[in-house]
Design goal:
With 262 residues, this protein is an alpha/beta fold. It has six helices and 15 strands. The strands form four sheets. Strands 1-15-13-5-7-11-12-4-14 form a nine-stranded mixed sheet. It has a two-stranded antiparallel sheet with strand order 2-3. A two-stranded parallel sheet has the order 6-10. α5 (175-184) packs parallel to α6 (210-217). It is globular and about 60 Å long.
């Protein structure tokens, strides 16, 4: 890449020729967190908590800052391969060791909003992917595959998590679709609008939690809790999604941005 190419990118951003779309939700105490089935409920991911240290007052007259705490997989967040047992043995598989170039990649946005509205347990299949490709072209290797469901538009945590006596009911994946994306299309990773990359009933699938199991088992990454996917084209956006550089981190809250030609 030439210096002229980088300067053209900078000029496009400064001049409005390239639009920046924020795909992240705001971290706050009301941010919903993943709720595992009771049989998997060993340990608890902290909800987001923020505590003011000082705000231009007797605690600190010239500065404002806060302490905060939360689980690594809170809000809009990044999943590294080390997050799942199937990805534990790769090298450079944690948030501090993943090569930085993996955090920037083009995106393919697959729209299943209508299907998810009709059926909250909708699962993307290989046939669904191939139908999308027939219209938009094959998914290029190294791309993020972003699963649009408009789930982020739910106006309450209750609707967003959609919990019932048998667990959550949110869209997900047929296992064969994840395998197809990782092996046949060699995606960079998968991103979703729901609280986690798997569907709400994924504990009962085979393998259990197939997106986590198969995605990270192929040394791929995940993004969850995305929003504004309806503002992206099916192809042509570039995603910037670096996680916090946590030592051996399994993931982290992430400010995910998309660059789109305007």
């Amino acid at each position: 890449m030439s210096t002229e190419t980088l300067m053209a990118l900078a000029q496009g951003l400064a001049g409005g020729g390239i639009k920046v779309v924020d795909l992240s939700t705001t971290l706050q105490p009301s941010t919903p967190t993943l709720q595992l089935p009771k049989e998997f409920g060993w340990g608890v991911s902290w909800p987001f908590h923020i505590e003011e240290i000082s705000r231009y007052d007797e605690r600190g007259p010239a500065w404002y800052w806060n302490n905060f705490k939360c689980g690594e997989h809170t809000g809009t967040h990044f999943d590294a391969p080390i997050h799942w047992v199937s990805g534990q043995n790769f090298e450079e598989h944690a948030t501090d060791t993943l090569p930085a170039e993996r955090f920037i990649a083009p995106a393919c946005v697959m729209n299943a909003a209508a299907e998810s509205a009709a059926n909250p347990d909708f699962l993307i299949s290989v046939d669904f992917i191939k139908t999308w490709e027939a219209q938009h072209g094959e998914i290029e290797a190294g791309s993020w595959l972003l699963y649009r469901t408009d789930w982020s538009k739910k106006t309450s945590n209750e609707a967003y998590l959609n919990m019932a006596e048998d667990g959550a009911h949110t869209p997900g994946w047929e296992p064969e679709a994840v395998t197809f994306l990782t092996t046949e299309r060699d995606v960079c990773g998968i991103g979703v609008e729901t609280v986690g990359t798997d569907g709400g009933q994924a504990a009962g699938q085979e393998p259990m939690f197939p997106c986590h199991n198969l995605l990270h088992g192929a040394n791929k990454c995940g993004l969850a809790g995305l929003c504004n996917l309806d503002l992206l084209p099916p192809k042509g956006a570039v995603i910037i999604a670096p996680p916090l550089k946590i030592k051996e981190g399994s993931g982290s809250p992430t400010r995910v941005l998309a660059l789109v030609a305007s």
